[in-house]
């Protein structure tokens, strides 16, 4: 599905401009990293793409395969149908902790299940089988009947990805999905996103604080600074200088990965750091 953003602007109450004429388009099957310093507008952009937040009155438009998500500050009245194609993975997992993992995953299909049935949480054998298959794909089928709150952060995040599989989402928007995970869990979550991208052709747009992860997993990177797109192109063409300009005083930590998952646990690095990644493609 083609996701097109034209001239998107968002001004928060008080006058702060969080998005400033953002225009981007995403083709089916892309895996794109969204990077930028804290406060640059990554989460705000992702919320607009799914119609969770409306732009300014004259703030541009977003279309998914020609269907409006929103136009000039007005969300499509039929947003539920549009949103059925969009899966969302949040930093804080967003599962209902007291419900079993499988039930959480099956709620991904709710937009395609008649309302009366979803109200009573009745799922057919076929739906349950689809849920279990999705859990198997993300490697956590053994935990299907545990309460979601009993899972580790990384497992909960993989359950959230399984939910997007059940939903049959064509686009997955992931907002800092690895920010609160340890390095190995983070790597697995990114690999799971890469798998659904490669195997199902699902478009994945993922905001990341870790530049090295963006370079490792995403062929394309979009960089935001103060609500504007300042880079959109192959991740391999990003230079260290661009990253320094983008992150300012945060740059050393971000680039060397000293505060992220880049520090290898053993001497076999699972993910290489951004400087070496850049040197390798130079
Ligand atoms: N509801 C809101 N009201 C007012 N300002 C907001 C609101 N939400 C976000 N902002 C501001 O908009 C800017 C962009 O925020 P956003 O969360 O999109 O940044 P981000 O790039 O995702 O940052 P981080 O990496 O820290 O999550 C920030 O300066 C933030 O303070």
TrEMBL record:
ABC transporter domain segment(s): 3-251
InterPro entries for this protein: AAA+_ATPase (IPR003593), ABC_transporter-like_ATP-bd (IPR003439), ABC_transporter-like_CS (IPR017871), ABC_transpr_PhnC (IPR012693), MetN_ABC_transporter-like (IPR050086), P-loop_NTPase (IPR027417)
Keywords from the named record: ATP-binding, Cell membrane, Membrane, Nucleotide-binding, Translocase, Transport
Domain of life: Bacteria
GO function term, MF aspect, one: ABC-type phosphonate transporter activity
Xref: PROSITE patterns: ABC_TRANSPORTER_1 (PS00211), ABC_TRANSPORTER_2 (PS50893)
Entry GO terms, CC: membrane
Record-given protein name: Phosphonate transport system ATP-binding protein
